[in-house]
Write a structure and sequence with these properties.
Blueprint lengths: L2 H35 L4 H29 L1 H19 L5 H29 L5 H30 L3 H14 L1
Helix pairs in contact: 1-2, 1-4, 1-5, 1-6, 2-3, 2-4, 3-4, 3-6, 4-5
Length: about 180
Amino acid sequence: PGLLKIARGVLVLCIGTALLTTGQGIAVPIVPLYADTLGVTVAQVGLVITAFGLARFLTNMPSAVLSDRIGRKWVLAAGAAIAAVGNVLSGFAGSLEPLLAFRFIAGIGSAAFITGAVIYISDVSQPTNRGRLMSLYQGSFLIGITAGPALGGIVAEFFGLRAPFIAIGIVSAASAV
């Protein structure tokens, strides 16, 4: 593909990544507080946080295989959509078990998106520009994950602890688009 097409694709991917990771960042201050409202122990709060990361760990490789089979764009879009659903449902969990399941689902979506994104950057880059493109991508990841906690705290402060999960769903859905 031409340089202009590559630059446009990478820019769109970076915007999507910033949106998705903003959602991940929103969850950082909220998940422990929200889980606590369900009357769980501190160890169970840890499990809720672990569920997201465990899902990412377990589904990175399958996401890569799926990306090779059906294409990067489908995995990116589906991953963001799955993350949106898992996060919105998390905001409606009434007990520990559904919250664990929904955070796990959100992690599956995140793994699919992030894995697909890294593969896409590798696909469109050359050895001479791969470092710059990966750096740009990583920067967009960090912008989102850095801005998200502040945004999550503000949303929770004004609208309650369930509202940030809706915000996460919105930014994840926007990422899918």
